[in-house]
Structure formats: structure tokens, C-alpha cells
């Protein structure tokens, strides 16, 4: 069970089988009086079991409750704009959540939806479509302006969207009766940057494709609302919105699926990490700071690619590296078999360029490198190098180095951020009034 919180078991009619599904629209829990429906819990549980067959329904319920509280607090503290400011996708928050909802419903109930589609007169979604007349150039001009007109971005203003709302791309029959339509505005509101570029380029095939996709999404939502109730579908959407906002909150704390993304909060915490904390982290995680201390190596310098390929083939066939260097290398150290001696980290071989040291430190010991053309401007003749690292000695980055300070301070900051988030979660659960109903304690929900 979740730690903290006021947990109250609510009355629910007894059932003969504890695993019997509760009605979709019944509350599995109430969080400060607001319901979390059984449909959302059971749908989320089924999704969890797809990746982990041992996932428990109770754990899913607990996660949804914690997400509801965390998401509400995140929106209150940061606002949706700040939470989603770091998103790399060009879709709005609402469109992203809608897409997640449709994808989730299709994943869980797609077979049943497909079965019902087969019962339609045309045995498929296409039978619902009612083609609309193609949009003329003049109609598109009222939305996008004249072709070739200078514009600052590919966004549509409210006046343009209002005009686009009058232009129907596709009509469709509703299975329950009546007719629906997809307008150019409907399509435009659901595009990312690439999609908006395609719209301004007047790609009519793209517009029609997007309209058809929206009809398919509409069918998924309509079928689910008729099957489980509109309130259940809306509640599942809120669960997905909670999940997205919690993921955004984690990103603000430098956690989650993209730990290398920027985080202002993490930057602030990292600046507060002391030298003592850096030293303590270095002592605990010294293995993370292993580096190549020095290598003993040889090289062969060839005048052109053809010669380099010939020598590389001979080496691949077992030829002795030092002997090939003495015979073919044009470097001054050819007589010494191309010996470079010991090359220290962050140093250059005597009289050799830095790029050669870099090549040596990226080469595995005992393996002859592929021929590498030396850096030179385009069109200039440049020699080729083949290197062999004979021995490699590892050491550790210096505890007081800048690289250690940077890595350690970020890692400590991430630990601090995780602790802050865990403390916030515990506090929210402690203060919330959480009521678990009989439906919340039941087994599987909608099949």
C-alpha cells in the first residue's frame, strides 16, 4: 500500500467472485473526493501486464493515485506551459494526450472494434466516408494566403483557423446515425511543425490522409464511449494526462527517459554541490572515472590511399607490423619500426599532431586500425596512417579535475532532485484523503 494518506474502504455490494469485473463507470478510488474510475485502473493494468505479466492491479491503482496527486501539484507549481516547454515534439499537450488515448484504446480493444467494423455494410471504416469536393486554390488562399507570400512562421492565427473551419475535407456517417465532418481547421490544429509546413505547401494528399486518420481516431473514441461510457473514456484520458505531466515533472528534476536534456532545477542544484560532496561521490564511484592513462604504439605512414590499402591487406594477412613500417612507412621513425613509444593521456607523441594521439586512445590494444587519411583541406594531397596499440595502461581521472567536478556535481544534483521528488510524493500522499472502494480492491476489469 502507499505510505501515508487517509485510507477508507467504501461500501460496495458484495460479489460472489472477488475477481469479477466492476462496472467501468464505478469509482475504484476517490482522491480528496474526486473519483478514479475502475475502467482507468483496469485499462492501465492491462497495459502494464503487456510489458510485465506479473504486474499487480493494486500496484497500478497505487501508481495512478500517486500520479493524480503529483500531476496536480506539478501543474499548480509550474503550470502546463513550463512543464511542457522542454518537449521535443512539435505537438501540443492536448494533441499528444489525445493520441495516447486513441493508441491505448486501440491497443486494448482493437479486436472488438475491428469485429464491429466488419458488421458495417461495407465491412470497414471506408464505408463510413463521404467524400467532399476538393478544396480549390481560391479557398486555400483564404487560409494560407497567396502562394509564395512571405511569412514569419507556419502557424495559423485565429482568423485563419476560423476560415479553415468552413472548409470541409471529409464527411463521414456515424454508426449510431447522423453525419460528422473533418475540416481543414481540425487537421491544422493537430499538426506539428512538419505537418504545418505540408499544409502551407498545399499538399492536398496530406490533408486528405490526415482527415482520414482523424476519422479513424473519432471511431475509436466513439466506439469506446458507447461501450464503456463517455465518463470512463474521459477519466482514462485524465490518467494519461497525469502520467504525461508526471513525466514532465521528472524531466524538470533531471530524471526520466532523457537524462541528458537540460534541466534548470538540476543546474541550480548542481551549482550548490560542495567540493566535499564531489570528493565523497568520487570515492564511492571511482570506477566511473577510469580513463586510459597511456598507450605504447606504432604507426605506418603511407603516401596515398592505394598504398595504405595494400599495406593494410598485408597486415590483415599476418604480416609483421614493425617490418611493414620499416619497409613502407614514409615517417621519420620508419627505421624504428614506426615505434611511438609510450604516449601519455592528454599529450602528443613527440613531434606528432594531436589527432594521432586521439586515434591511438580510441584504438583497442592488439588490433591494427583501418587506414585513416590525415586531416587536410579539400583537394589537398594527404598521407594515410595505420596504427597499432601494443599495450594500454588504465588509470583514473584526477579527483580535483574539472571533468570529475562536472560529472559528480550533476550526479549528486540528480540524487538531490530524486530525493526532493520522493519527499513531495510522500507528503502529498500523507495529506490526501484516499478512499479505496470495493471496485478498487476487485480483480480484473473490462476484458
Automatic annotation (TrEMBL):
Catalytic activity of the protein: [protein]-peptidylproline (omega=180) = [protein]-peptidylproline (omega=0)
Keyword tRNA-binding: no
Pfam family, one: Rotamase_2
The PpiC domain, residue ranges: 292-377
EC number: 5.2.1.8
Keywords associated with the record: Isomerase, Rotamase
Record protein name field: peptidylprolyl isomerase
Gene3D superfamilies: 3.10.50.40
Superkingdom, taxonomy of origin: Bacteria
PROSITE patterns: PPIC_PPIASE_2 (PS50198)
Lineage start: Bacteria, Pseudomonadati, Pseudomonadota, Betaproteobacteria, Burkholderiales
Family that this chain belongs to: Belongs to the PpiC/parvulin rotamase family.
InterPro entries, per database record: PPIase_dom_sf, PPIase_PpiC, PrsA_foldase, Trigger_fact/SurA_dom_sf
Record keyword S-adenosyl-L-methionine present: no
Amino acid at each position: 500500500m502507499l505510505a501515508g494518506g487517509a485510507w477508507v474502504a467504501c461500501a460496495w455490494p458484495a460479489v460472489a467472485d472477488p475477481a469479477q469485473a466492476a462496472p467501468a463507470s464505478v469509482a475504484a478510488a476517490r482522491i480528496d473526493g474526486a473519483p478514479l474510475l475502475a475502467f482507468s485502473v483496469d485499462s492501465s493494468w492491462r497495459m502494464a501486464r503487456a510489458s510485465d505479466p506479473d504486474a499487480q492491479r493494486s500496484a497500478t491503482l497505487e501508481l495512478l493515485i500517486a500520479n493524480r496527486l503529483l500531476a496536480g501539484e506539478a501543474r499548480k507549481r509550474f503550470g502546463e506551459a513550463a512543464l511542457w516547454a522542454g518537449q521535443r515534439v512539435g505537438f501540443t499537450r492536448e494533441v499528444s494526450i489525445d493520441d495516447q488515448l486513441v493508441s491505448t484504446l486501440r491497443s486494448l480493444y482493437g479486436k472488438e472494434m475491428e469485429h464491429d467494423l466488419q458488421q458495417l455494410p461495407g465491412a470497414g471504416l471506408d464505408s463510413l466516408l463521404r467524400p467532399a469536393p476538393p478544396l480549390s486554390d481560391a479557398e486555400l488562399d483564404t487560409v494560407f494566403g497567396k502562394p509564395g507570400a512571405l511569412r514569419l512562421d507556419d502557424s495559423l492565427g485565429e482568423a485563419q483557423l476560423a476560415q479553415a473551419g468552413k472548409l470541409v475535407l471529409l464527411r463521414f456517417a456515424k454508426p449510431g446515425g447522423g453525419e460528422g465532418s473533418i475540416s481543414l481547421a481540425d487537421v491544422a490544429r493537430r499538426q506539428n511543425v512538419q505537418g504545418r509546413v505540408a499544409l502551407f505547401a498545399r499538399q492536398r494528399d496530406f490533408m486528405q490522409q490526415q482527415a482520414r486518420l482523424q476519422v479513424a481516431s473519432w471511431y475509436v473514441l466513439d466506439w469506446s464511449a458507447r461501450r464503456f461510457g463517455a465518463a470512463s473514456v474521459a477519466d482514462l484520458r485524465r490518467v494519461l494526462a497525469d502520467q504525461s505531466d508526471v513525466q514532465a515533472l521528472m524531466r524538470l528534476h533531471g530524471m526520466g527517459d532523457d537524462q541528458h536534456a537540460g534541466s534548470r532545477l538540476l543546474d541550480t542544484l548542481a551549482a550548490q554541490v560542495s567540493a566535499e560532496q564531489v570528493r565523497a561521490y568520487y570515492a564511492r564511484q571511482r570506477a566511473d572515472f577510469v580513463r586510459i592513462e597511456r598507450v605504447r604504439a606504432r604507426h605506418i605512414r603511407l603516401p596515398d590511399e592505394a598504398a595504405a590499402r595494400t599495406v593494410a591487406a598485408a597486415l590483415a594477412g599476418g604480416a609483421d607490423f614493425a617490418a611493414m613500417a620499416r619497409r613502407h612507412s614514409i615517417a621519420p621513425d620508419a627505421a624504428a619500426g614506426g615505434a611511438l613509444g609510450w604516449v601519455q593521456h592528454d599529450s602528443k607523441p613527440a613531434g606528432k599532431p594531436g589527432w594521432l594521439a586521439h586515434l591511438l586512445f580510441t584504438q583497442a590494444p592488439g588490433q591494427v586500425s583501418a587506414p585513416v587519411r590525415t586531416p587536410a583541406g579539400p583537394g589537398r594531397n594527404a598521407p594515410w596512417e595505420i596504427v597499432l596499440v601494443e599495450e594500454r595502461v588504465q588509470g583514473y581521472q584526477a579527483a580535483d579535475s574539472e571533468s570529475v567536478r562536472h560529472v559528480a556535481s550533476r550526479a549528486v544534483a540528480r540524487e538531490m532532485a530524486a530525493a526532493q521528488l520522493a519527499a513531495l510524493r510522500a507528503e502529498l500522499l500523507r495529506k490526501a484523503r484516499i478512499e479505496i472502494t470495493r471496485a478498487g480492491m476487485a480483480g480484473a476489469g473490462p476484458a
